[in-house]
Amino acid sequence: MEDYRININYAKALFMVATDENQLDAVNDDMRLVHSVCADNHILNVVFANPFIQEGKKIAILKDIFDDKISKISMLFISFVVKKRRTVNLKGISNAFVELYRKEKNVVLSHLVTATEVDESARRSVIDKIAEYTGKVVELESEVDPEILGGFGITFDNNMYDDSISTAINKLRKEFSKNVYESKL
Q1: Which residues contact 160 (CB under 8 A, 6 or more apart)?
Q2: Dist. CA 133–CA 182, nearest whole Å
Q3: How far is the C-alpha of 150 from the C-alpha of 10, rounded, in Å?
Q4: CA-wise closest residue to 144 among 165, 119, 117
Q5: Topology (CATH level 3) of domain 4-103
Q6: What confidence tens digit (pLDDT) does each residue in 45-101 have?
Q7: What's the CA gap between 14 and 11, in Å, rounded?
Q8: What is the strand order of the sheet 107-114 is part of?
Q9: What is 106-177's CATH number, 3.40.30, 3.30.700, 3.40.50, 1.10.287?
Q10: Per-residue pLDDT tens for 132-161?
Q11: Are 62 and 39 spatial neighbours (Cβ–Cβ below 8 Å)?
């Protein structure tokens, strides 16, 4: 069962160890990899959630997946998480670590949604505008969603800007559905 307090406490512990060992950037890359593997692999999450699979087997599975791809600190931490029977929280812990890293490095995560693929000059322009607005370094994720028909939507730092054609059409529908006619009789 996912629990935010558990995730953040384990992430803070790893963050302190990584900072003390001057391995913060490497561990951040490792936790991004761990999060993406956990997010993309449903079967692995089922294995993590199964209490009948022994921790030795879980550690062996994780070593097979990550051993040559992540740092020693990260591998020791993952083994510790398994021994504490918090394997089901591994995805949340890794995500919480990345959030702590972003906060430490003054990075804002932004999400851009467009109807078609965006070229590099448009991405750079969006990054520059968000950086100017927030005063932070921008990490931009982009997504193509043909449902918005055209335009774009941006979310960052609890802000949302939606300038998509589908939103404009929905606003017009609402306006036209109101009966603004007043009889003068």
Answers
A1: 153, 154
A2: 44
A3: 42
A4: 117
A5: Peroxidase; domain 1 (1.10.520)
A6: 899 899 899 999 999 999 999 988 999 999 999 999 999 999 999 999 999 999 999
A7: 5
A8: 137-144, 107-114, 151-156, 159-164
A9: 3.40.30
A10: 998 999 999 999 988 888 888 898 888 888
A11: no
Helix, strand, coil shares of the chain as percentages rounded to 5?
Answer: 60, 15, 25
4-13 pLDDT per residue, tens: 899 999 999 9
Are the C-beta atoms of residues 6 and 89 closer than 8 Å to each other? yes
- Is residue 7 a contact partner of residue 92, using CB atoms and an 8 Å limit? yes
- 7's CB contacts (< 8 A; 6+ apart) are 89, 92, 93, 95, 96
Is residue 1's pLDDT more than 60? no
Question: Structure tokens of 181?
Answer: 């006619």
Give residue limits of the domains in the chain.
Answer: 4-103, 106-177
56: exposed, middle or buried (Cβ count in 10 Å: 0-12, 13-18, 19+): exposed
pTM of the model: 0.80
Residue 43: is it exposed, middle or buried by C-beta count within 10 angstroms (0-12/13-18/19+)?
A: exposed
> Token match 């009889």: residue?
183
- Left, alpha or beta for 53 (phi > 0: left; psi -120 to 50: alpha)? beta
